[in-house]
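Changelog-adjacent note: as of this version, every example in the card shows the full chain rather than a window. The one below runs 140 residues end to end.
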Amino acid sequence: MGVEGRPGDDEVLAFAFEEAAARGTDLIAVHAWQDVVLETPYQSLSVLIDWSSVRADEERVLAEAMAGWRDEVPAVPVREVVVRDRTARALVAAALTAELLVIGHRRRNRLATLGSTTHGVLHRAPCPLAVVPITSRTAG
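Full-length structure tokens:
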């Protein structure tokens, strides 16, 4: 299951926990992050960044998103995984041994177009894929 750490994650988490409980399996919560600096003309700034601090912040994002869910659904063992990679690639890799991959989809405009992550996972997922529509309104 992919976790962004944004409003709407609860809809995806609820679905993922329900499916894991019904299947009698564990849940792997994946949060991926990228080095934005390394993908810009400012690559030389990379040496000035405390990457361990950035990683700790990303781990905190995932932990906060998962807060309460372990207590609410104690029968489902949870493993939190934070990876420094492109989101679609990280989710596809995590799904290699999964029974089901669960991701959320925010409708970005009036058309029901898929975002790049959803599109990328849809075409490469090695297991069944559940795309949960995120209906909560969010800024951004």
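Structural remarks: The helical segments are 9-23, 51-66, 69-72, 87-94, 116-124.
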